[in-house]
Design brief:
Elements (H helix, E strand, L loop, with lengths): L2 H35 L2 H8 L4 H39 L4 H10 L3 H29 L7
């Protein structure tokens, strides 16, 4: 089984995992952008004659992404739990399927190890989200 074949078989599970969170992310992005586009600094940039695309990318999108990044951080645990179901349905070996099989066989050491690995990954995702805040909005400083 080559790399291209594995990639081709990964399309459907990836779509299933991604589509479930996509609608929520789009809603948060839309509502955040609507709120940001009504702010005074966006109107000031328009009044100065800055092109709309520049206003959108430099001013509005950066400030509008902060709630979206927060939601992405919250969706990481859901991604791991959804992976267990998706891996079982598509017969794709992974951490989720290993967790389900271990739970059915009552293999407690494996379940404990998987819990430790997944919780570490969730904590790392939360750290990455916190660090992304300072990249998106330079006014946010950690010190």
């Amino acid at each position: 089984m080559g790399f291209v074949d594995r990639l081709r078989h990964l399309i459907m599970p990836a779509v299933v995992l991604g589509i479930s969170s996509l609608a929520q992310l789009i809603r948060y992005t839309r509502s955040s952008m609507i709120g940001v586009l009504r702010e005074d600094y966006v109107r000031t940039a328009h009044a100065k004659g800055v092109p709309f695309r520049t206003v959108l990318s430099r001013h509005a999108l950066r400030n509008g992404l902060i709630p979206v990044v927060t939601v992405i951080g919250v969706l990481v645990p859901r991604l791991f739990s959804g992976a267990a179901i998706t891996e079982s349905v598509f017969s794709w070996p992974g951490l989720g399927r290993l967790a389900v099989d271990s739970a059915l066989q009552r293999d407690y050491p494996v379940i404990m190890a998987l819990t430790l690995v997944v919780s570490t990954l969730v904590i790392l995702a939360s750290l990455i989200v916190d660090l992304l805040y300072s990249v998106i909005d330079p006014r946010i400083r950690y010190g």
